[in-house]
Write a structure and sequence with these properties.
Layout lengths: L2 E4 L2 E2 L5 E5 L2 E5 L7 E7 L2 E12 L25 H18 L10 E2 L7 E8 L5 E6 L6 E3 L13 H11 L7 E8 L2 E7 L6 H13 L4 E4 L2 E5 L4 E4 L2 E4 L10 H15 L4 E5 L7 H4 L4 E6 L2 H13 L6 E5 L9 H4 L4 E4 L7 H8 L5 E6 L2 H13 L3 E9 L8 E7 L1
Parallel strand pairs: 7-22, 12-13, 17-18, 17-20, 18-19, 20-21
Antiparallel strand pairs: 1-5, 2-3, 3-4, 5-6, 8-9, 8-11, 9-10, 11-12, 13-14, 15-16, 21-23, 22-23
Helix pairs in contact: 1-9, 2-3, 8-9
């Protein structure tokens, strides 16, 4: 059964929202003020499928990608950029308000730069056992085959072609494959996951793919298959050799912006603690002017950070260590020797570490987050512990998606 609805606003996932007596109803790809014809989604009474836009918003624009609306990678390409930017800033404001927090929220900083420097493509066998390579469909499990992606950096122009070559080389493997491709100074770094144990013929075929596409490195679940060069990225004065399959900020510009904001918040601190440090996007830049202790649960990342710091010219001492900050956060007595703390946890936030920070006397905390909701929860803990939330800056390195990052400063 179809019906017509009028969209009130855009929700936190990028869907159009209709306010009804029974609660909100979500319509993907619809904009405020539009009259739309929809049909219900079976099993989801709060969701509808967009069939037609009957009355179009004046703020609707053509999407930049022909796959938009089918591919699940982007939520909003069809809204004028000024409204999109205000909406993303509003996601941060809403998260703060829900936690009962007030603070200045800056305008959204565009950190798309040249585009995404890492991508995960999926290979699956669909109907009639036909191989498909691309991105997951929106709110579905099947794959949308794509021929290009406009949000990728130019260095990843061949990523889709390479993912097809990897999948075709493993024709005998029936398991779903995830293919992570990262652009580095030395070339493309590819990590394959989901293949299971490979027979010699499959290994040989993958080596052929690496040679043919001149990959810097090809690994399977982090284990080396082929390598022609060490994949590295530049972080300030340092050059970091990437661990296989390791985490990297999505865009180079995003990393630069987040680091610039975090470093400005810690000011002239002489001794800084970098928590959830990864390969050191903050630590290695901080070390140009301060002593740094860097901590992360990923031992390969902290080892890479240590090696890079040891080779980089003109850095102050950097001590990196592996430690599970969810199970073993640094406690208040361990925090007392630091002038400032930077922390950048994964999407689940850093509740345990926030409680330890709230009990400490560290004068300045720079918080970086990729999830406004968990940031607001952790910020509430810090404020209740005596910190003042001085300000928040939203950062957009995931253009067209509902994801927004932020950097905030807390002071005692």
């Amino acid at each position: 059964m179809t019906e017509q609805l009028v969209i009130a606003h855009v929700g936190h996932r990028g869907d159009g929202v209709v306010d009804t007596p029974g609660g909100p109803v979500y319509v993907p790809y619809a904009l405020p003020g539009e009259t739309v014809t929809v049909e219900p989604v079976t099993g989801h009474p709060d969701r509808c499928r967009l069939l037609r836009v009957e009355v179009e918003s004046a703020d609707r624009v053509p999407p930049v990608c022909p796959h938009f609306g089918v591919c699940g990678g982007c939520a909003i390409q069809h809204w004028r950029i000024e409204h999109y930017r205000t909406w993303k800033q509003g996601l941060v404001r809403a998260a703060l308000a829900q936690a009962g927090l007030t603070a200045p929220v800056d305008g959204l900083v565009d950190a798309h730069g040249a585009g995404r420097r890492r991508v995960v493509l999926h290979a699956r066998r669909g109907a009639r056992d036909i191989l498909q390579v691309g991105f997951a469909a929106a709110r579905a499990h099947h794959i949308v085959p794509i021929d290009h992606c406009p949000v990728l950096a130019p260095d990843l122009a061949d990523a889709i072609k390479i993912a097809w070559s990897v999948a075709e080389a493993l024709e005998s493997v029936r398991k779903p494959l995830d293919i992570q491709i990262t652009a580095t100074e030395a070339g493309l770094d590819v990590d394959l996951r989901g293949s299971g144990v490979l027979k010699t013929a499959a290994q040989t075929a993958l080596v052929g793919v690496a040679t043919r596409h001149r990959l810097a490195r090809l690994t399977r679940h982090g284990e080396l298959v082929a390598q022609s060069a060490t994949p590295t990225v530049r972080v300030g004065r340092a050059e970091v050799a990437l661990p296989a399959g390791g985490f990297l900020q999505a865009t180079a510009e995003g990393e630069t912006v987040l680091a610039r904001l975090a470093l400005a918040h810690v000011g002239g601190a002489n001794s800084v603690l970098d928590l959830f440090c990864g390969i050191g996007p903050f630590a290695l830049r901080l070390a140009e002017r301060a002593r740094v202790t860097a901590v992360d649960s990923d031992g390969a990342a902290t080892a890479a950070l240590s090696r890079a710091a040891a080779r980089a010219p003109g850095l102050k001492p950097v001590a990196a260590q592996a430690r599970d900050l969810f199970r073993r956060p640094l406690m208040a007595n361990e925090l007392e020797s630091f002038d400032a703390v930077v922390f950048d946890p994964p999407r689940q936030g850093a509740e345990a570490q926030a409680r330890a920070l709230a009990a400490s006397r560290v004068p300045v905390v720079a918080a970086v987050s990729c999830n406004p909701a968990t940031f607001a929860r952790d910020a509430r803990i810090l404020v209740d512990g005596g910190y003042r939330l001085a300000g928040v800056t939203p950062v957009d390195q995931f253009r067209y998606s509902p994801h927004v990052e932020l950097v905030a400063q807390f002071r005692r």
